[in-house]
Write a structure and sequence with these properties.
The complex is a heterodimer.
Chain A: H1 2-20, E1 31-32, E2 37-38, H2 41-71, H3 75-90, H4 93-111, H5 118-154, H6 159-170, H7 172-188, H8 191-196, H9 214-221, H10 227-259
Antiparallel strand pairs in A: 1-2
Chain B: H1 2-18, E1 20-26, H2 30-44, E2 48-53, H3 57-66, E3 71-74, E4 85-100, E5 107-108, H4 110-118, E6 135-139, H5 144-153, E7 164-166, H6 169-177, E8 182-187, H7 188-196, E9 201-203, E10 205-206, H8 213-217, E11 224-232, H9 237-247, H10 249-257
Parallel strand pairs in B: 1-2, 1-3, 5-10, 6-7, 6-8
Antiparallel strand pairs in B: 3-11, 4-8, 4-9, 4-11
The chains are: A mainly alpha, B alpha/beta.
């Protein structure tokens, strides 16, 4: 597995070299490879804004759903929510993207702009990340709850208080580690975001402005790119690999710290 | 028993190696056309297997050049630096501006299109339509449709100020059908096919010229491109056979069904 990852890194680095050695124009905020400008900055901003906003806004939903799964009285409620979340998390992301393009984008366009926007991208990423985090948080809570429920009840505490005051505070590191993985999922999503983000290379001034991420940039242009242009896309891929690896390491480190 | 299974496996493998297999890669505009032609070709030639994959005109050229594909599909004529390849024209396609069906505007002049795509005209009422911010949709760089569009209107890629950038024709059509203020440019073939499927778009006239397949055929409509198959200078007999088939009357119906135009007989 490690060999594969290193191999991937080497491959991307090798494909990026023509671009890197051509002393490219990477400053400025314009991406016009056919004219020689390769402004990466707006792409980085696009990737980070979509990933971070969607993960952050998924958290409250994840907490809420995990809590329902844990504490709801009726098994029917718990079961149906669990099935719903598992189905959603298994949904091919392109379907969510198509739904976004056909249903969500026109609704956003009625409010402001073209509809394809940072807002639309974050929305569909929330739809994809929330089930993941909800189920992960639930399994963390369930583990902790099993151990602490009986002593907690003996002290006269009800489940809700046990969850809020004991389980959650003591699982923060686990939850953080799982959130990093959710962030990784959001960072990696390409095809669905491609359909709803608008793909304009710019720093958005409003959430209704169009954006382009490093991933959608590759998906959009790779089929037609040649020479230095193609190499620049591999360089973007290399950047994404570095970021996701860094994210993964952070997630492991946080978890390792908790185990101590 | 084991010998029987062995024999069955061998016998299944043999016919496959006896068949002629051809691989086509390239333009996403030409791919649907060649897929239908290939299906018909396989019916008429039971030993043949034709595999069609898209990936872009540039990929078609690269693959044909390196022998990775037997034929490349390209949605433009070859450039001078591509003279190491042979080109075989199978159809003609036009590029037209499209808008939502409910847009009262029927025609745009060259000057208006340039100003709209440069972001100098921002509202439909400035070209005689209803009040509404124009949502300009442009194609991603490197695509032959974009190149042709820019060339015809004398624009540079960095001149265009768009609200959204799309990749495939279908994406553009989908976006325009969902937004009454949108404008985009796509292959006429794909637009007419969508309209026949009741998608809410319409083709806009350019300088008073209707972008019909008729106008493309007679050359009255100005933004047109060749759809071609490319091969190395010495293509295999199997490849030549498929090319001849695609250029023959047998494929003519398919070309017309997809709203492309047959090249004039020379």
């Amino acid at each position: 597995m490690a060999l594969l990852s290193v191999g991937l890194f080497v491959f991307l680095a090798k494909e990026s070299t023509p671009f890197l050695f051509s002393s490219p124009q990477v400053t400025g905020n314009q991406w016009h490879p056919t004219e020689g400008t390769f402004g990466f900055f707006p792409l980085l901003v696009g990737s980070f804004l979509t990933a971070i906003f969607s993960t952050l806004f998924s958290l409250p939903f994840a907490f809420a759903f995990a809590r329902i799964l844990l504490l709801a009285r009726r098994p029917m409620v718990r079961e149906s929510l669990r099935v719903l979340l598992e189905t959603l998390s298994g949904l091919p992301s392109i379907i969510v993207g198509l739904w976004g393009l056909t249903f969500l984008v026109p609704k956003i366009a009625a409010v402001s702009g073209a509809g394809v926007s940072l807002f639309a991208s974050v929305f569909i990423l929330i739809v994809m990340v929330t089930p993941l985090l909800s189920l992960a948080f639930y399994s963390t809570f369930e583990q902790k709850m099993k151990d602490i429920a009986t002593p907690g009840h003996a002290l006269g505490l009800n489940d809700d208080v046990i969850l809020r005051r004991i389980v959650v505070p003591s699982s923060l590191r686990s939850l953080a580690s799982q959130s990093y993985l959710g962030l990784g999922r959001a960072l990696g999503e390409t095809m669905a975001v491609l359909l709803v983000c608008g793909n304009i290379v710019q720093i958005p001034h409003s959430i209704f402005d169009s954006v382009r991420t490093l991933n959608t940039n590759i998906a959009l242009e790779v089929a037609y790119a040649t020479g230095v242009h193609r190499s620049s896309l591999f360089c973007g891929g290399l950047l994404m690999l570095i970021f996701s690896t860094a994210l993964l390491f952070t997630s492991y480190k946080v978890r390792a710290n908790e185990a101590n | 028993m084991r010998n029987l299974i062995f024999a069955l496996l061998i016998s299944m493998a043999l016919p496959a190696s006896a068949a002629e297999k051809l691989l086509l890669t390239g333009s996403s505009t030409v791919a649907p056309l060649m897929m239908e032609i290939a299906k018909k070709y396989e019916k008429d030639h039971p030993n043949a297997r034709v595999d069609v994959q898209s990936g872009g005109s540039s990929k078609g050229i690269a693959d044909a050049r390196e022998g990775v594909a037997d034929l490349g599909m390209v949605s433009r004529s070859l450039k001078p630096e591509e003279s190491d390849l042979m080109s075989h024209r199978i159809a003609i396609d036009g590029i037209s501006l499209i808008s939502h069906k409910t847009n009262p505007i029927q025609n745009l002049n060259k000057d208006q299109v340039i100003k709209i795509y440069k972001g100098e005209i921002k509202n439909w009422k400035d070209v005689g339509g209803k009040d509404g911010q124009i949502v300009v949709i442009n194609k991603a760089e490197g695509r032959s449709t974009l190149e042709l569009f820019l060339q015809h209107f004398g624009l540079k890629a960095s001149d265009v100020k768009a609200q959204s950038i799309i990749g495939e024709n279908e994406q553009g059509i989908k976006m325009v059908s969902g937004n009454p203020n949108a404008v985009a440019y796509v292959s006429i073939g794909s637009a007419e096919a969508a309209i026949a499927n009741n998608v809410s778009i319409k083709l806009l006239d350019l300088d008073g010229q209707k972008p019909s397949t008729e106008a493309v055929k007679t050359g009255k409509f100005p933004i047109i491109r060749d759809l071609i198959l490319v091969t190395k200078k010495n293509p295999s007999p199997a490849a030549l056979d498929l090319i001849k088939y695609a250029q023959s009357a047998k494929a003519a119906d398919i070309v017309k069904e997809q709203y492309f135009v047959l090249p004039p007989k020379n």
